[in-house]
Amino acid sequence: MSSRHFTPALFAFLRDLAQHNDRAWFQANKQRYVDDVQEPALAFIATCRLTQREVTSSGFSDALARRFRAATPFMRFLCRAIDVEF
Given Cys at both, which of 2, 7, 74, 79 links 84, Cβ 3.0 to 4.6 Å? Predict the structure, then answer.
């Protein structure tokens, strides 16, 4: 089953933020940030952690595990961006 964490709303928020990058705008749009950026990012991280656990503990091939580990730098970047431990 496929799950889509990042939607067009996330990219719309980022475009708007690029044009209105100030505290007042962000405070007025904080709920958009939570709904469209933070929560989807946290769900994505949770999904990847579960996937990593499944890949490393269920006997999948080493090649598949290596492919997952290749995504680790991105996961660390994403976690740092939203202040979550990885």
Answer: 79
Percent of the chain past pLDDT 70, that is, above it, reads 55
Burial class (CB in 10 A: 0-12, 13-18, 19+), 31: exposed
CB-based contacts of 84, cutoff 8 Å, min separation 6: 42, 45
Give the model confidence (pLDDT) of 12-43 as tens digits: 999 999 999 899 999 999 999 999 998 988 88
CA distances from 15 to 8, 9, 12, 30, 45 (A): 11, 10, 5, 15, 23
Largest Cα–Cα distance in the chain? Answer: 51
